[in-house]
Amino acid sequence: MAAQDCKRFDFDPILQAHVIAGPDLLRQALRHPDLGVRPPDQPLPPALQGRRFGAIYGQWLRMREDPARNAERQALEQALTALDRRVLQAEAQHQARLALSQSWEAWQWSSLPASLAAMLGVPMSSAADQASLRQQLQALAQALRPEAGPRELDAADQACEALTQGLGRQGPAPLWRGLSLPNWDAAAQAIGLLWQSHEAGAGLLGQALLAGAGHEAELLRLAQSPGVIQHTRRWALHDCRLGDSYLPRGTALLLRLACEPAEPGAGLSFGHGRHQCPGQELALLMAQATLGVARQALAQGIAPPSWQGHHALAHARVPRLADRADRAESLVLADAKLPTERAPTPSTTAQESRP
Question: What superkingdom does the record give (predicted)?
Fold first, then answer.
């Protein structure tokens, strides 16, 4: 982002928001106790009121500031910490191979959400399962757009229903089983995890593949500068101060995360303070495994993707990857050399062992 676009604190009359930039002020805003992710009198987007997606969206931990949610937050963090990294890595490799057998676009968009979904017991045994998951997450994204109408909102409700019904249906589902929460709360947080892996995961994989990154330090650098998530919003929940500025209750802020300097370990795309992403380590682990599959396929002769610019998304920078014309021929050669077996897993179903 150009330097002239990174003023520290300025009011944008078009956005009707104060634009915040600069590392110190951004960190102050992200950890400020009186700045929330939703307007003070609007816990849900108006279009989601009374809808199934609205009920789930309102349960997502990043949308709620009240201390009563601390137990849920702790349960989610414990479930993520307890997840066996070797099992997750093997699942990510399997899902990446499955997606790459379809297209580079499928690899970019399906690999990470499908890996998490499998850990949550959602059936992910085929390319059709992956495509269905992607369609469901896209339905949620469409419903959150300002121009969403009844068709998009109905599709999001149906997607939430399908995702909820799929949780714990197949395999040991260690992440689903590890969520020590009532089923409704666990389902809402599980869908929240899948949602967070959707655009952010596609952006990270696309950027990393184009840049030739693969090691954790390289991935973290790409996730930070300029980062997949370009900006986020906050609202003053009460009259408060940020730096030298007074913010009346309801003041809207736009935090330009892309203005953050490229300092190792200092980026904000994974959040900061109480909004620090608890799944950062797992996201980077899955991305490494997924990129390893891509590098292996490229070494075996599969045609690399072509870059077609970026998707037109409101807050994320996601490269658009497309297959080259010669991919089909190269895929035949690569498929003959790539392993396709899946890591063995216990046969016990998650539904039998969920608390």
Answer: Bacteria
Look up residue 229 and give its DSSP letter.
B
Helix or strand run (H / E) with residue 121? none
Query: pTM to 2 decimals?
Result: 0.86
Give the range among 69-73, 167-171, 232-236 with minimum mean pLDDT.
Answer: 69-73
List the 35-36 sheet strands across, edge first. Answer: 9-12, 17-20, 252-256, 231-236, 35-36
Take residue 89 and report the two structure tokens written for it: 């890595």
CA 333 to chain centre: 33
CATH topology of domain 3-353: Cytochrome p450 (1.10.630)
* Predicted pLDDT at 346: 39
- For residue 41, give the 3-state DSSP assignment: coil
Angle between helices 280-299 and 199-211 (to 10 degrees): 50
Cα of 67 vs its chain's centroid, Å: 24
Which neighbouring-strand residues pair with 252? 235
What 3-state class would DSSP assign to 48?
helix
d(CA 279, CA 110): 18
Q: Tokens for 31, please give them.
A: 């950890």
Q: Rounded to an integer, what distance in angstroms lies between the CA atom of residue 118 and that of residue 168?
A: 9
